[in-house]
Amino acid sequence: MSPPHRIARERHDGVMVIAFDRPEVRNAFDRAMYFAVTEALEDALDDDEVRAVILCGRGPSFCAGQDLKEMAAIATGADDSVGEPGFQGLLDVLGRFDKPLLAAVHGAGMGLGFSILGHVDLVLVDTTARLQVPFAQMGVPPEAASSVLLPARMGWQRAAEVLLTSRWILADEAVASGVALRVCAEGTALDEALALATTIAAHPGGATRTIKRLLLAGRGDAVAEARAREEASFAALFADPDANPGAGLTAALES
Predict the structure, then answer these.
(1) Residue 243 and which of 73, 147, 175, 202 are 20 to 30 A apart at CA?
(2) CB 140: neighbour CB atoms within 10 A?
């Protein structure tokens, strides 16, 4: 069973909704949440009645990325579980997720809350959405193959700007840059995503899975190679005694 207070699942006519459910920390991912979301995605793959999946967040935000308290503890040596596979397991299932995957985004999507959208087929944002990849600001490398997926979505210059400046982009810019499909009225992104997913789920599951597999095949090697480069860069940062990666994370916690 999934740990409590991490995610919620709902079923709607062939659609599984996976809601990030840690609103007290803006749905930041800790270890338990990585495993809970991964388990839910695996279950969706194994369930023939599920033909599309939607990711969303409960509370005022979509997702604040990785749990910075947990990351800072690892970076400063207070937690020695840097090799813990929850994050990698989530990326593994996203990389082979051969069913249509949608996201309904409202409020803040930071770090992984932005980079995860590169693995999503159709992203709907409401007017409150704002997205940021704060890796440069925090002093850490990109993650989740975002060094490849963001340029593929946004174009080189727009991706370089958001990665190098750590600035926020709002809903209209997310659509204009290719990160999202369309902007919805405040509070309606999930309803519109459900309508879109229900349309997709009404088609033969074999056909939609084949289409998704073909889409994934075109970028699979590039994503795997980007992950390997990013993970090596992150490992090198932690291996450098002069880098002090905990400083950027602690500063981010205090900001």
Answers:
(1) 147
(2) 23
Show pLDDT as tens, one digit a residue, over the chain (255 residues): 444 558 999 999 999 999 999 999 999 999 999 999 999 999 999 999 999 999 999 999 999 999 877 665 554 444 444 445 689 999 999 999 999 999 999 999 999 999 999 999 999 999 999 999 999 998 899 999 999 999 999 999 999 999 999 999 999 999 999 999 999 999 999 999 999 999 999 999 999 999 999 999 999 999 999 999 999 998 888 777 666 555 555 444 444
Closest alpha carbon to 100 in 218, 221, 210:
210
φ/ψ of residue 111, rounded to 5 = 55, -120
Q: Among 3.40.50.150, 3.20.20.70, 3.40.50.2000, 3.90.226.10, what is the CATH number of 7-187+205-254?
A: 3.90.226.10
**Inter-axis angle of helices 146-154 and 220-239, nearest 10:** 130
169-170 and 130-132: which strand pairing? Answer: antiparallel
DSSP letters spanning 231-251: HHHHHHHHH-TTT-HHHHHHH
pTM: 0.90
Residues 6+ apart with CB under 8 A from 198: 12, 13, 14, 15, 52
Angle at 112 between CA 223 and CA 233, to 5 degrees: 55
